[in-house]
Amino acid sequence: MPLLTVAAVRKQIAAGRPDPIYLLLGEDEIEKASLTKAFTELVEEGVRAFNVQRFHGVDMTTGDKLLEGVSSLVNAVRTMPMLSPRRVVVVMQAEYLIVPKRESEAAVQAIEQLEQLLNRPEPECTLVFVAGNVDKRSRLYKALVNQATLVECGTLQSRADAERWIRTRAAAAGQDMDPAAATLLAARAGPDVKRLRNDMDRLLLYTLGQKRIGIEDVREIAGPAALQDQWAMANAIEAGEAGEALRQLALMLDAGGIPEMILGQLGWLVRAKFPAVAPGSVQAAVEAVFRTDLDLKRSAGDPRVLLERLVVELCGGKRLAAARR
């Protein structure tokens, strides 16, 4: 079955079209708890008592307890919804269920019952397994991989993922957060979830007692932007990608980059790369760099605006050279 991001699963939930079975994996307990709560909200609040049921794998680890717990779980999934189009059944600490402590006849029977449930899910019930570290060699894990939608919680693939993660963490701490503050923190930390977690922990401590986290709080706490590639802006210009080049420039400036040093990098790019990648634009690019240098020295404008203008000009020269070829 597919491996989906948390954001993709939330879109399924918002559309009211969840898959029948999910396996939430990872050590990010807050992310897992938040997504589990979203699943329960598939059922209207007034009828959740009849249609949302939780089990705990730690209560069904060996022998008869395992078989009894699995039988109750299967019955819960097979029960028809009451006054609702859907039931939601959640298994917390599912790693204990997926890998029983010891083999026994009862454990084998329990696993067989679960495999039958996985092979024939109920269309009107969403079954969610929430687990930490799981032995991926186990028989039941392999069955889950074949039948369930896998979700890795705490994995960030984009800045949008990082912003969502930040908002979730702030909400779990009972804090409101300005959207601009979440955006800045995501930009400064990048996709590094370890750094993001550390920055967020410090931010929550710094704003303890405040009603709302603002952008100035983030500026006080968060370190420079996590530029994965110090030459990302230059590479984007070389590729003629103005939007990405401007984004990388903004990250560099927000991280405290010195405009004159950034201009030096752009000057090197023109001297070293443009003769090969955009020979027809070298003279115009050199003139643009010298003009920007003079404007910076004369304080003839906002340094950010001057550098943005230069970046756009350099990208335009690269695209013009490519069009001519």
Description:
With 325 residues, the protein is of the alpha/beta class. It is 60% helix and 10% strand. The strands form 2 sheets. A 6-stranded parallel β-sheet has the order 1-6-2-5-4-3, sandwiched between helices. It has a two-stranded parallel ribbon with strand order 7-8. Helix 4 links the parallel strand 3 and strand 4. The longest helix is centred in the C-terminal third of the chain and has 22 residues. The protein starts with a strand and ends with a helix. The C terminus is likely disordered.
What is the fold's blueprint, element by element?
Blueprint: E1 3-4, H1 6-15, E2 21-25, H2 29-40, H3 48-51, E3 52-56, H4 63-78, E4 87-92, H5 94-98, H6 105-119, E5 125-130, H7 139-147, E6 149-152, H8 159-172, E7 176-177, H9 179-189, H10 193-206, E8 212-213, H11 215-221, H12 232-238, H13 242-254, H14 259-272, H15 274-277, H16 282-298, H17 303-324
Parallel strand pairs: 1-6, 2-5, 2-6, 3-4, 4-5, 7-8
Main sheet strand line-up: 1-6-2-5-4-3
In round numbers, the mean pLDDT is 86
How many separate domains?
3
Distance between the termini: 45 Å
Helix content: 55-70%
Shape: elongated
* Strands, count: 8
Count, helices: 17
What is the name of the CATH topology of the largest domain?
A: Rossmann fold
Q: What series of H and E elements makes up the topology?
A: EHEHHEHEHHEHEHEHHEHHHHHHH
